[in-house]
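[job 4471] stage=fold_predict status=RUNNING
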Amino acid sequence: MSRVGKKLVTVPSGVEINIAGKKVDVKGPKGQLSIDLPETISIKKNEDGTYSLERANEESKNKALHGLSRSLVANMVTGVTDGYAKTLEITGTGYRVVQKGNDLEFALGYSHPVLFPAPAGISFKVESPTRFQILGIDKQAVGEAAAKVRKLRKQDPYKGKGIRLENEVIRRKAGKAGK
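[job 4471] inference complete, writing structure tokens
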């Protein structure tokens, strides 16, 4: 069996999981998420209140889907209880971020300010002009929004300017060797 797939999904108090065929709905204090499981994966509630996922057969594709499906359900439970956050930092002279309503406005060295609208289910929290957080209950949506923000000004390996994740290490390159 898949090591990840055979782990049980524990459900804290205040979280409710509804199973309707292959559709799994998770409802908690921060919101509601749902997912459609693959045809070969099934979910059932155990007597102790935990949930387990099982696969139909031992094909390699189903083994991979087994672990993936379990992780997705566990991430939904975590999302509706605690939520997810990614912290990003901006480095560079004059580079900054300002919150305008639900959106972010960046000054990234271009001739114009860059406006980044908040995707559905995502909120922003600006801690300082060079540091901000992306918050949400859907782990995939938070990561995707962080990737799109980073794409606005990729981290430069020579000067170190750009947008990066909080603990991300950028390998610096040596510049041109002078004579």
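[job 4471] summary: The mean pLDDT is 91.
[job 4471] exit 0
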